[in-house]
Amino acid sequence: MTVKNHSIKINTNRNFEIIDITSKINELIDVENGIISIFSKHSTSAIVVNENESGLLNDLEFTLDNLITDKFTYQHDRIDDNAKSHLKSFLLSSSECLPIKNGRLDLGTWQSVFFIELDGPRHNRTISLTIIGE
Question: Which residues cross the membrane (predicted)?
């Protein structure tokens, strides 16, 4: 059994952006079978697994924008003026733990792993990968 650590750096271009990182993760997997922890080191971003279909990705942005809107005043905005980004990240997840099989992520047919930027554009966003396997 081995434990390996890697990281992925991402630059984003928009305030809200969904980036498929599946292939970047698969490139770093160096075990045949095991598990991988995928963790975003930022409280205004998320890691999620879902289908990479443009309509669905647009629907996610629409839904988050309608759940957490500009019609309210948020206390955190007194500090950073990015309360909406933090609140959206509460609804999503900062990490995923996934199986590795035959040297690749063992995802369902339509599943991909996404990094979601909620407070961009940003440079050098860090995603930490911990791989446990053989």
Answer: none
